[in-house]
Each structure stands twice: as structure tokens, then as C-alpha cells.
Amino acid sequence: TSPKTIFSGIQPTGVPHLGNYLGALREWVNLQDNATTDTTLIYSLVDLHAITIRQDPKQLRQWKKESLAMLLAIGLDPNRSIIFHQSDVPAHAELMWILSCQASTGYLGRMTQWKDKTANEKGSSEKLKLGLFSYPVLQAADVLVHRTTHVPVGHDQAQHLEFAREVANGFNHTFETDVLFAPETIISPAKRVMSLTDPVAKMSKSHANPKSRILLTDSEEVIRSKVKAAVTDSIDGITYDPERRPGVSNLFDILYHADPRRNDHDQAELVKDLQGSSMRIFKDRVADTVNAAIKDIRARYEDLVHDEGYLQDVAEQGARKANESAAATLREVKNAVGL
Ligand code: ADP
Ligand code: NA
């Protein structure tokens, strides 16, 4: 087998939630723990992406620290994975500029996420920022600057990865080089976790209602109260029916995917087991399972987040390794362009 490089990122815009964990972060740890020695793992806190919307500087600095502590708490090991803040590696932004000079504005304008944003702003281009429009180019640079071969992402990011592949192939073609690699996508095996209070929207760091998400730092009591308050419906009994019963079905998905034994049986068995239960017993079981899945993470996080010296060491070590990885690509890219 040929050497692999795996890259993925998360925005440091708050404590990661259960959706981040089940949909992405747990897979990052899996990939690390099952990696052979010829695999390089690179995980970034993408702070340059975070500022595509306005952030309070003090808050952002705090979130960056907390997010780093959380990546360690979930089980990423800085000796096996390169963990770094994106803005500590200037090659990401530099490659982005070079790729921007090749990227088609028409293609970017057709991206679903941009179209959603412009629809909300009702065409007011004063409010729409260039960084938000071009952030898929930065995402492409993030991946390409490390000559990544595999990118684990959620379904929502598949379109941006396709764009990164086009950018890589287009660049190589234009400059008659093979410096950039078009990466493969590893689509996350887990379902999207939906909001607890509005189960037709995804669980998100940015949702206004804090009860809509379970944070990886939530205590057992907080988890229990959020699950208890989760929106369901007035239909009798417990059934799995995502169309008609999005709230109950989301809780089923959470229960199934948070269970460490999920690979030993399928979700249909779980649904059959719980069909006769009351809503109270069902919700208790969800809260217990979620708590069991994250309680060790929570405990490790509490220690790590106060260990400023260690966090700084990890960030510096990650930045050094990521800078090395990116510099080699950037040198060849500049050379290909004539810079
Ligand atoms: P958020 O959308 O909460 O701000 P990010 O955009 O930083 O989170 O996403 C980090 C990772 O978590 C991405 O791989 C994304 O696909 C995944 N992710 C985010 N929200 C969910 C969710 N509700 N369910 C499953 N995966 C999610
Ligand atoms: Na997102």
C-alpha cells in the first residue's frame, strides 16, 4: 500500500457538541488508532475559517484553547497526529491566494452553502463578505497544501471536496505539473445529528438555543435535562419514523450511534427492543448512553483545559510539523507558477 495523508478540520467556534463528535471527531480518533506507520494524520483548528463571520477576539482566543483541549480529550495523541491552529501555518493562506487566481467565480457562486447565505441576505451584497464567498478555496488549500490523500468529512462537505479536486486537477493541467494531489473523500459513517429543540435542523454550534445541543463538556445532570426537554411529538409509543417523527427518530439515532456496541447489532433490533417503552424510559436510556459515551472525555477535558503550558507546547509542536509539511508543497507550487 502507498503512504496515506489524512487531513480534516473543525472550526474553533465553541465547545464541540455531540454532532461534531459522532459525525466527525470520533472518526478522527478511529483513523488515528487504526493507522499504519506510513499514514500521516493532520487535524487542524481552522481559525481562519472561523473569522468568515465576525468574532469577538477574546472569545475566539478562548475557544481556540478549549477546542485544542477537546481534541486531546477525545483521544487524539500529538505524537501520532499533527494537531495545529490553521493561522500558525501561513502556507494555507498563501496557497489559497495562488489557487484563487485560478478558481472560477461561477463555480463558487453555485455552491449550496453560498446560495443559502445569499438567499438569506436577500441580495444585499454590502453585507456579503468576500471571505465567505471564497472560503471553499481556503478549504481546498487546507487539504492540498499537505498533499492529502484522504479527507474524512460529513455529507454537507462533499461538494467542497469535489471543488478541491477540481482545483487540484485544474492547477496541474494549467501549469503542466503534478504537484497537487486530488484527495479522496471518506464520508463519515454516522448520520447527521439533529437539533434537540428543532429536529429538522442539524445540531450546530451556532444555533441560538443552548438546549438544542449536547456539549461534550455537559455534566450528567445537564445531559439528562436536555434530553428530557428534547422536542418529540404526541403520537403514542416509541417508533422510528424520521419523516413523521423527526424528534423521536433523532433520539434513536443518537442512542444507536453513541453506543460503543453499535457494530454488534443493527438499529432495527434496538428499535424493536424499545417499542414498548414509555417516553420517560426511552429518554432515560438515551441520556445514560450519551453520558457513558462522553464522561471520560469530559473528565480529561477538565484537566487539560487548565494546563496552559501543555496546550501551548502541543500547539507549537503541531505548528512546527504542519509548517514543514506545507512548506514542501508551497515551494513546488510557487516554482510551477514562476514565483
Ligand atoms: P458546526 O457546524 O457545529 O459549526 P463545524 O462546521 O466546525 O461544526 O464542523 C466540524 C465537523 O463536524 C465537520 O466534519 C462536520 O461535518 C461535522 N458536523 C457538524 N455538525 C454535525 C452534526 N449535527 N451531525 C454530524 N456531523 C456534524
Ligand atoms: Na458546519
Describe the structure.
This protein has 339 residues and is mainly alpha-helical. It has two domains: 4-192 and 308-337, Rossmann fold (3-Layer(aba) Sandwich), CATH 3.40.50; 217-303, Orthogonal Bundle (Tyrosyl-Transfer RNA Synthetase), CATH 1.10.240. Helices cover 53% and strands 8% of the residues. The chain has 13 helices and five strands. Strands 1-2-3 form a three-stranded parallel sheet. A two-stranded parallel sheet has the order 4-5. Strand 4 (150-153), helix 8 (158-174) and strand 5 form a beta-alpha-beta unit. Helix 3 packs across helix 12 (279-304), helix 4 (91-100) runs parallel beside helix 13 (308-337) and helix 9 (220-229) runs antiparallel to helix 12 (279-304). The radius of gyration is 21 Å and the shape is globular. The two termini are 35 Å apart. The model has no long low-confidence stretch (mean pLDDT 93). The structure holds adenosine-5'-diphosphate and sodium ion.
CATH domain fold name of the largest domain: Rossmann fold
Strand order across the biggest sheet? 1-2-3
CATH superfamily of the largest domain: HUPs
Give me the count of strands.
5
Specify the biggest β-sheet: 3 strands, parallel
**Which stretches are poorly predicted, pLDDT < 50 over at least 5 residues?**
none
Per DSSP, what share of the residues sits in E-state strands of 2 or more residues?
A: 5-15%
Query: Which compounds are bound in this model?
Result: adenosine-5'-diphosphate, sodium ion
Mean of residue pLDDT values: 93
Q: Give the number of domains.
A: 2
Computed over alpha carbons, the radius of gyration is 21 Å
Distance between the termini: 35 Å
Helix-strand string? EHEHHEHHHHEHEHHHHH
How many helices? Answer: 13
Quickly give the CATH architecture of the largest domain.
Answer: 3-Layer(aba) Sandwich
What structural class is derived from the secondary structure elements?
A: mainly alpha
